[in-house]
Amino acid sequence: MQNWINALSWLNLRFLLMGLWVTIYISVISVILSFIIGSILGIIRYSKIKWISKIVGFIIDIIRNVPLLLIIFFTYFGLPNFGLRPETIPAAIIAMTVFESSMIAEIVRSGIQSVSEGQMEGARSTGMSFVQALWHVVLPQAYKNMIPTIISQFVSLIKDTSLATIIVVPEMMQHAQVIYGQNANYILPMFAALAVLYFIVCFTLSVIGNAIGRHLS
Amino acid sequence: MKKKFWLISLMACIFLVSGCGKSTNNQSVLKDVQQANTITWGVKGDVKLFGLIDVHDGQQKGFDVDMAKHITKHILGPKGRAEFVTTTSQSRIPLLKNRNVDAVIATMTITPERKKVISFSKSYFDAGQSLLVPKNSKIKSTKDLSGKTVIGVVGANSVQNIKKVAPKAKIIELQDYAQAMNALKSKQGDALTTDNGILFGLAVQNPGYEVRGGTFTVEPYGVAVDKGQTAFAEAVDKAVLEMQHNGEYNRLIKKWFGDVPGFKYKELYRQ
């Protein structure tokens, strides 16, 4: 019991919350970037532009089928060979963005495909161009359907930031390791605290996502 | 058509990968750090007594860290700056090769295998591997380990050593010492093995456990630099020697290991 009290002292918790801040920082930037990049890639893949769509599809397939852990390793240890030497936090953001963009791209593509083709044809018959029809008619419907899937993808993004401990990003998981490095008996209290904090963040996001979904429908 | 596409993409990938073969440059790290007046050190962030981040201010603290600060002053002069990057047992060598850090001082044993890829200074600390067991355990020394499960830490040298002295022991490797300690407490293994300094640190926090069997290896810790950076390694050697002569070294030993019960820190003193 004393271990729990000592482990969850204000100093330790403050250090853990500093880590949580880094976790949220990495997550928010990666979410924004991967939402934009993923949407563009997904639309390109849907549009069937001769070569480009195929190449994009090929790259997405590669990234989706590689563990995120390897992508994190590659950005931190591999990129310096190409003359780019990111610090740990940017490396984590790059890795998360690359991985999540390809996940989002697939969600966007299938989201667009789930909108019935009649919508596109109808819009085109009124004289809209392909891009106009996509932008004004198809995409709004597609995104509405996609919200729950995208939100759950972002929830797993937040949880996946814990993988970045492997390159010693000072996020919540790594800070927990430092705290129980002081005393091995702090390990269980720290895991419990981690579970609670991750739950609060992820559950909040899900609730917000559901609210948006309800609001739109 | 489709086949051709795959072939081309495959070739593009091969080109990309082969293009990254240009590895380490031959620039002198010693000259670089003198120019920048800063040495960037890779240290541990979660190992008590050697390199542990202080939750008060986020700074790494420990024997390795203090050694690095002193060595920096000896090499660069009193105005030289030491910067610290937290590394793990797995990441410290790649970081050194990529020049994210200039040198690594992170409880790293000098071994022939490691010498193939990096260079070391002379030993700056002589640790020895030992065993941590519950007080009621029948294990007295490494001889009693056959058929037992021994817990070690991934990427550390100690696991290789235990395979040599107790080939019949089962081994589990965990991510860090705290996890290893908890595995021992939850009886997933019969003994925990690593360098004695770290084990004594763990025993302090866990009264039901003790270090046994003396040390069965010598683990000379060295400062690691990139392969071929001998000038830098020699500068480190000279700095450590100066610290031994003027008593700084012994003061640091006493500062970090003087309060560890059961640890004969005076044996580590150097003149």
Automatic annotation (TrEMBL), chain A:
Gene3D superfamilies: MetI-like. It is a multi-pass membrane protein. Its main location: membrane. One of its GO terms (molecular function) is transmembrane transporter activity. The keyword Transmembrane applies. The chain crosses the membrane at residues 20-43, 55-77, 186-212. PROSITE patterns: ABC_TM1 (PS50928). It is found in: Cell membrane. GO terms for biological process: amino acid transport. InterPro entries: AA_ABC_transptr_permease_3TM, ArtM/GltK/GlnP/TcyL/YhdX-like, MetI-like, MetI-like_sf. One of its GO terms (cellular component) is ATP-binding cassette (ABC) transporter complex. The keyword Ion transport does not apply. It holds the Pfam family BPD_transp_1. Keywords: Amino-acid transport, Cell membrane, Membrane, Transmembrane, Transmembrane helix, Transport. Residues 20-209 form the ABC transmembrane type-1 domain. Belongs to the binding-protein-dependent transport system permease family. PANTHER family: INNER MEMBRANE AMINO-ACID ABC TRANSPORTER PERMEASE PROTEIN YHDY, MEMBRANE COMPONENT OF AMINO ACID ABC TRANSPORTER. This is Putative glutamine transport system permease protein.
Automatic annotation (TrEMBL), chain B:
CDD domains: PBP2_GluB (cd13690). The keyword tRNA processing does not apply. SUPFAM superfamilies: Periplasmic binding protein-like II. GO terms for cellular component: extracellular region; membrane; outer membrane-bounded periplasmic space. Residues 38-259 form the Ionotropic glutamate receptor C-terminal domain. The keyword Metal-binding does not apply. SMART domains: PBPb (SM00062), PBPe (SM00079). It comes from the Bacteria. GO terms for molecular function: ligand-gated monoatomic ion channel activity. One of its GO terms (biological process) is amino acid transport. Residues 38-260 form the Solute-binding protein family 3/N-terminal domain. Keywords: Signal, Transport. Residues 1-23 form the signal peptide. Gene3D superfamilies: Periplasmic binding protein-like II. Belongs to the bacterial solute-binding protein 3 family. This is Putative glutamine transport system substrate-binding protein. It comes from Lactobacillus bombicola.
